[in-house]
C-alpha cells in the first residue's frame, strides 16, 4: 500500500467533503424550491459556470478512458478532441435560446420545454425517460475511474471489504448533494479542475523528460496506432467511422440531462455564450491528456512486473495510474489520484441531480401528483437523487463492467434521438408532437438493434451505391428519426395540427 499517496488522497477528499457541505451556505437560497436546489437558483456567473460545465463534461471516466483508448486502439481515440471542438459552436447557437425560454417559463428540465412547446405529455415523458436511462450507466462509469485509482494505491477493490471505499465515497456524495444541491458540485468543480490541470501539465512536461523527449515517445508507438488505417477498396473504413463518431458525439453531448442542468443554472444567456467561447480550453487539455496513453506505451508500463496485476484486473484503464506511479513521487500520485476521484464525484452529483429533477417534474408532478407543493417537489427530488446513487452502486457492483460500457454506448444512441424535439424545437414549430414521438421510437429501436447486431461496436456498416460506409449508429438512426418525424409531421399538420398547444411565443427565445 502506498501510504503517502493514500494520506494525500484522503486529505484532499476530506477537504472537498467539507466544501460540499459548506456549499449549502454559499449564495444562500431557499433549498425547498427545485430551482434553488436543482439549478443553484439560476445564478451562476461565467467563472462558476465554466468550472461547473468543465467538471460536468470532463469526468473521471474521461481522464481514464481517453488515454486508455489511445493506449489500446491508437489514433481512433483522438476522436474525442474534434468532437469537443465541434460541440461548442452548437452550444453557442442553440443553448442560449433554451436558457431564455426556460427562464421565462420556469422550466427546470428539457422535458419541461418539450411539454410546453408541443403540449404533449407523452412526448415529454419519452424525452425524460430517455435522459434518465442514458445517464444511469454514465454515473456508474464514474465509479470505474475511482475504483481504478483506489486499487492503484494498493487498496483491495474486490469483495465486500473492497467495495467499502466506493460505498463511503458515495455516502458522502449523497449527503452533501442532499443538503446543498447543485451548489456543492459547482464549488467542488473548481478544486477538481485545478487539480486536473496541474496533473496534466505536470505529465506532459515531466514524463517526456524522463523518456527522452516526444520524438522518442512517438518513435516507440507502433505505426498502426499512429494513424487511422487506410480504407480498403470499396469502403470508407475508419475514416467515416471516425468522422461520424466525432460528429454524433458532439450532437449528443449537451442533450444529456446533466449538461442541460449546467446550462440552465447559468445566470444569463450571455454567460452561456461566453462559456461556449472559452470551454475549448478543456479540449486542448483533453488532447494533451490523450497523449498520456502514448506515453504509457513508450514507458512500457504494461511490461513492468509491479503493474502486471493492475493491468490484469483493470485492463487498459490501468494505463494512466501506472504511468503516474512510474513517473512521479508518491505525494504527487496522491494529488493526481485525488483529482481523478474528485472528478468522479462532481459529474456523478450533477447527473443524479439532473435525473432527479426529471423524475420529479416530468413523472411525479405530471403523472402522480399534479397538486404537489413546491416544497414537496424539492423533497421528492432530494430523495430520488439518493435512490439514483444507490442504483449506480448496484449497477457497478452486480452488473459486469462490460455491460456498463455497453449501456453507456447505447445511452449515446438513445439520447441523440431527443435532438429533433429539443434542439430543432428551439428554432421551429414545424414538427408535430406525435410525429416526434413516433420518430423517437423508431430511431431508438433501430439504433438499439444496430448496436446489438454489431455486438455493441459503435459503427454500423451502411451499404450505399456499392460503397461500404461505416457510420456511427447514433447518426444513422437519428437520420431515420428525422425522416420519419418530417414525413409524419407533413401528414399530421394537414389533418390534425397541434400548433395551438404551444405555450411559448417567439420573443421567449431571445
**How are strands sequenced across the largest beta sheet?**
1-2
| N-C termini distance | 57 Å
Q: Could you spell the SSE succession in H and E letters?
A: HHHHHHHHHHHHHHHHHHHHHHEEH
Strand tally: 2
Q: Could you walk me through the main structural features you see in this protein, from its secondary elements to its overall organization?
A:
Helices cover about 75% and strands about 0% of the residues. Helix 4 crosses helix 18 and helix 18 crosses helix 19. It is globular. It starts with a helix and ends in a 14-residue tail after the last helix. The protein folds into 2 domains: about 350 residues, Sodium/glucose cotransporter, CATH 1.20.1730.10; about 110 residues, no CATH class. The protein contains 23 helices and 2 strands. A hairpin with a 2-residue loop joins strand 1 and strand 2. The chain has about 500 residues and is mainly alpha-helical.
